[in-house]
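The instructor's notes for this session suggest beginning with a concrete chain rather than abstract definitions. Hand out the sequence below and ask the class to guess, before any prediction is shown, which regions might be ordered.
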Amino acid sequence: MVYIKWAFWGIVALIVIAFLHYTLPQRDIVRISDTYEKRIDFGENSIFWAKEDTGTATGQINRDVFFIQTIRKNGKPLVFRNEDTGWGWPPYFKFDTSNLQTEASDLRSTSENPKWVMVTHYGWRVEFLTVFPNAIAVKRVDDPAMTIIPWLNIIILLVLFAIFWAIRVRWRRFRRRRIDPMMAGADESWDNLADGARARRGRASRWFASWRR
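After discussion, reveal the predicted structure:
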């Protein structure tokens, strides 16, 4: 049971970590090589795409999606999608997809004349599932080697840890005051029943033994 317990909590921890890693904002310093628009037919990977852009028709099986092609500092490509999040999840309240696409197009660069940009985004790039991170904001930077400290992520994680710790402390107090005495009482009652049963079996055995004699 100990192994099952730790396996269960390990799976729960992995799910929570993956959820936070997907949802919390991330930042990459890249140079934009191109921007384009593409018609996307949604299939099994539809959960990784945002809902329809605010103001457009709902329930569509395909729609045009903006993309931003970038190159990392190590020369590897990284493609972002550019979709509104609206009022849904995750709560970035992004409604400026067209404006962001215009800003990204204006910041396009070449290897001879690079313009380094910090792209704020959430999500993952999973090639075999055709999943792209969603760009939230772009900002021109002068130093591609600058250090990025994720202050917002640190604050959010500290708040979540504080909430988890407060719930855990209160649960332990509730368990110590209410559940543990009940369990102790149940164990004592069970022991009394077991002792009574053993005593009755002993009396019955002695009674049968007297008849055999």
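Then share the key points. The beta strands are 26-41, 62-72, 77-82, 116-122, 134-140. Residues 190 and 196 are 10 Å apart (CA to CA).
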